[in-house]
Amino acid sequence: MAASIQSAPSSPRRIAPIWWGVLLLLALAPIPFGSNRPWAWSLLSLSTAMLLAAWAIAVVRGSRTLVWRKALTVPVVIAFAIMGWVIVSILPETAGSAPIWDFASEQLGRPLTRRISISVDGSLVALMRLAGYIAIFWLSVQYCRNPRRAEHLLILLSWSGLAFALYGLINFYSGNTHLLWFERWAGYEDVTATFVNRNHYATFAGLQLVSALGLGISSFRAAWRVSDASQARAGRIAESLSGRPIVYLLIAVVIATAWLQSHSRMGVVAVGIGIIGLLVLSSATGLVRRSWWLLAVIAAIGSFLVIVSGQGVLQRFSHDDTDRFAIYSIVTDQISAAPFTGTGYGTFAEAFLLYRDVRLPSASTYTAAHNSYLELAAELGLPAATLAVFGILWCVGLCLIGAFRRRRDAIFPIVAVAASLIVGVHAFFDFSVQIPAIAISFAALLGCGVAQSWQSEAGGDVNRAGSAARS
To answer: Can you list the alpha helix ranges (DSSP code H) found in 406-435?
Structure first.
């Protein structure tokens, strides 16, 4: 489990242009509707490819060393296996080709090339997007071995979260008739910031919220250690809260207000679980001492936010979701029809039309299963989908182990676990993680957590200074 090749943490004053490029992408990606438009996700994928190529060139030239650990072998192999499977699914005349090609040949009166995927274009676009997310994860692993850069990531997500929350709240209370400079066509009664869908913004805000809380907790802990231990406990707490800790806790309150005003039921539940996970891990690892006053303060702040901003979401819990459960039933049949091969990555919208029946009487068009696990199984097949989820869980497991093993900087794997809880729970009821801006934010946080999940002195890290720090 030790690191075999490792660049040492560099001076905070040194410039890492590739890493700043990643941070810039994370800051800008949410603006064009979460980058959930063809031109936006294409530009995002191109940018990540360029950053990855620049990093690879730096490694080849010797100006940067490779951050590697044996435990990374599993997710790396799985990532290449999944991408390889997607490529196989679009190859011509592959065993297990979809029957729709035979039917289409009969209807058109001419032979068509048979493939596993029912849409080559759809699979290629989805593969492009997936490769971009994997690239962000990888770059985050490479650059967040430096704890200062890991902190840069949380700072970026916290302050950008504040900006998006303020925009969403101002837009909401001023009438909510526009989304950016476009006439709003959905979400009139919700805070969605620059996203179209309230569920998507709730997940996005949750990732930023746990980042801000993580910075607030870690900076409070750092201030507590150097505070005057001879003074009364209340005075020491007040002293430790002043400055940086209170700033990030206030940022968290603003983001939480916007998050609750999104009125997303499962978004609130998933983010709530993520916050609980953050606090439990912080307490279990000794980052936060167990104390009744802390629990009382958290309960008071939470109750205040729910009273002020949570009434709308509480009312929505009484609404039923008959359409959603009908979709799940149909998608289950879709999986049963091609359990091993699926219909091709990125083909759900087309494939769902072939299986849709009277169980879903609504006239609405559905381009997602509203359950990312079911959708993944329908597209990739059960074996590949299971492998993909296992790869993510492996990384989460590394973060969880790292949270208990780290003597310092444990907040980074803790935040990564909290982010995984948010995304993982919400994925059972929605498809927020499939929105590009959310996917790259999660990928960056998970990569950061993995990078900080093992101690720098463990395994004999190689001390490489100078040009390696500048890449």
So the answer is: 411-426
Q: Quick one: pLDDT band at residue 4, thresholds 50, 70, 90?
A: very low
Query: Rounded distance, CA 295 to CA 301, Å?
Result: 10
Residues 6 or more apart whose Cβ sits within 8 Å of residue 126: 86, 345, 346, 347, 379
Backbone phi and psi for residue 385, each to the nearest 5 degrees, phi listed first? -65, -45
Q: What is the pLDDT of residues 272-330, one digit of tens each?
A: 999 999 999 998 888 877 655 566 666 676 666 666 655 666 666 656 566 888 999 99
Phi-psi region of 14 (alpha: psi -120 to 50; beta: other; left: phi over 0): beta
Minimal CA–CA distance to 280: which of 399, 414, 188?
414
- 194/86 Cα distance (integer angstroms): 31
Helix (H) and strand (E) counts for the chain? Answer: 19, 4
Q: What are phi and psi of 60, to 5 degrees?
A: -65, -40
Residue from 375, 382, 394 nearest 432 by CA: 375
How far is residue 36's CA from residue 31's CA, in Å, rounded to a whole number?
10
The Cα 404–Cα 138 span in angstroms is: 23
